[in-house]
Amino acid sequence: MSSMPVGxxxxxxxxxxxxxxxxxxxxxxxxSRVAFLSSGKATAGLVIxxxxxxxxxxxxxxxxxxxxEVTVDLLLPPSGAHWLGTDHLGxxxxxxxxxxxRSVLLVGVLAGVFATxxxxxxxVSAGFLGGVGDEILSALSNVFLVIPALPLIIIVASQxxxxxxxxxxxxxxxxxxxxxxxxLRAQTLSLRKRDFIEAARANGESTARIVWFETLPxxxxxxxSSFVSTVTFAVLSQTTLAFIGVTxxxxxxxxxxxxxxxxxxxxxxxxxxxxxxxxxxxxTLGMALTLVxxxxxxxxxxxxxxxxxxxxxxxxxxxxxxxxxxxxRLDPVGARAPGAPTAQGSTASSKPPGTGxxxxxxxxxPTDTEAAR
Length: 373
Fold this sequence. Notes:
The protein is mostly helical. The protein has one domain: MetI-like (MetI-like fold, Orthogonal Bundle). 59% of the residues lie in helices and 1% in strands. The protein has helices at residues 25-37, 40-62, 93-129, 131-145, 149-159, 165-176, 178-191, 195-202, 207-215, 220-243, 254-263, 276-300, 302-307, 312-316, 366-372, and strands spanning 322-323, 326-327. It has a two-stranded antiparallel ribbon with strand order 1-2. Strand 1 and strand 2 form a beta hairpin. Helix 2 packs antiparallel against helix 12 (276-300), helix 3 runs antiparallel to helix 4 (131-145) and helix 3 (93-129) runs parallel beside helix 7. Belongs to the binding-protein-dependent transport system permease family. It is a multi-pass membrane protein. Residues 333-373 are annotated as: Disordered. It comes from Sediminihabitans luteus.
């Protein structure tokens, strides 16, 4: 029998154990993106948002006319020369909307970024600090929750008549971060008691590392939802401020188009092309942001992700008909459990089939019945 060198394993006797694939962070992130994009709502919302972003970037260059160019073609309906008609000064409405898209998205994104950063800073810090620090930051959030954004911006705009988009975005962010901070604080309070956070503390990791590498990745969905909600709030607020004439009327936005249409009585003059396209753009952008938010909710909530909120899960469920307020079971008679009450209120016999199953007529002798059996 030949000896085998130490450390050498016979190929015939080697047993190969199944190797589990290593799940790297990149693979997990890829699976998360695929799961998010599998939602029809999120995909539709993202496609619409990408189209708006493209128009915001190239809008001033593809606009057929200068939005401030005054012509003699006053209040013309849509035609081949002016696809969305003209206003009371002969200015092209389509060019005004294309140029104004950049202003709307710029204010929305800037306000969303500023408000989200403030919400993360205050909410996560309050959740981790606890004690007096938590109380101070929570009180600060409560104060900003009750500050109305619209009157504050009106006051600021009255002091700075030429307030630009940056100032409007800062004021909107200053009044829109508190809701996200409260949600992040509550979630951070829940996460700080989890086992993986306690294990990180036991390993001697610093608080900054725990927050950055352990807590924030688990708050990504909430942060994204807060950002989308703040962008929606900022877009609607900026449009409202432009519509009532608070911001500069020389900076084109969708609200500015509505402002000039309302000031010149476009509705009473029958110039529907002057205000309906701007309203449809506002509604479409709000719908796209809402769809993305719904997609985030489905991605976070397993129940919503399974059902898809599309009715498919409801159609697959067995619905029991109800008579009045009493549920009716559709089980066959033979499937009733022994001793279960019947529809007439009697109790089903617990004897096996063939034993005492022959009905007895009223007034018959039990002895005759046994003889007949």
